[in-house]
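Batch manifest line 275
LIGAND: S-adenosylmethionine
JOB: complex structure
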Amino acid sequence: MTTSMMQIERSDHDHDAYDDMMDRGAFLRKLRRQMAEEDEAQREVPASSNDDTADSDTLCYQFYLSVQAVYDGYKHVNYRQIDFGIVGDSPLVIAQDRTVGKGGFVWDAAYILAEHVSRVTDWQAGSPNVIELGAGTGITSLIVARQVPQAQVHLTDLPQLLPLMEKNSSTTKNATAGVLEWGRNVSGQEYDVILGADVIASIYDSNGLAKTIHDLSHERTKIYLACEDRLAGSIEEFEDHMRSLFDHVGRSKPNSANKNPKVWILEISGKRSTQ
Ligand SMILES: C[S@@+](CC[C@H](N)C(=O)[O-])C[C@H]1O[C@@H](n2cnc3c(N)ncnc32)[C@H](O)[C@@H]1O
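JOB STATUS: finished
ARTIFACT:
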């Protein structure tokens, strides 16, 4: 049992069945609110970790991978940019911006997803169009765009992330960036591949995300979401929701040099039409 569960105590008064049911509902709502607050607190960027020294300007990601031992999402939040070395045919340096929220820096799930889809997806056929939801810095899309030059890749996120996505995508010719808020009506455009890294959490609009993924899919669309285990509940609920919209929903082990053991891939396909 978690600390939060233990902290919520129920009264020992006598109850009839109706009271019991109402109590249970209130208890579960309170528990859910408290879990969401804890999740948010866990993911808050710690103010004390800001470090403006010249030494912390650029992180070499390959060096970071070679010494990776601690799987803390905030470990490279202090760096203004991350150098991913040569990706495709030119250097890829990704700017980070702590002022725009959690999307302003690179999460492990983002790199893991990029490597996974670049390696496991059959990219041979045609010129696939790819969209990423909640792209943040854009690192996932930009690695995929460079590894699969025949693909057209569109990065999307909330309006405050647009300048960062545009800046980071400016050196990748087959990538574009735009605003897309989950749950809003989309233009009718359908994509062959839909990506999302670390976008399922109690603080985010999972119903909106599910609707957007369904709206942007056709019958052969492949969807890859990299998930990081934090608090139980939100991801399982999302998986159940997706099972009502798609025929195939399954978890797979990531194929990546980043070995964060908490990250796994949710693969979805087989869109069902809804009336
Ligand atoms: C934890 S960050 C992950 C960023 C990036 N994918 C990564 O892994 O580095 C979650 C991202 O989801 C985006 N997001 C959250 N709610 C959203 C919504 N309703 N519509 C669009 N994007 C949203 C946030 O702005 C943020 O960029």
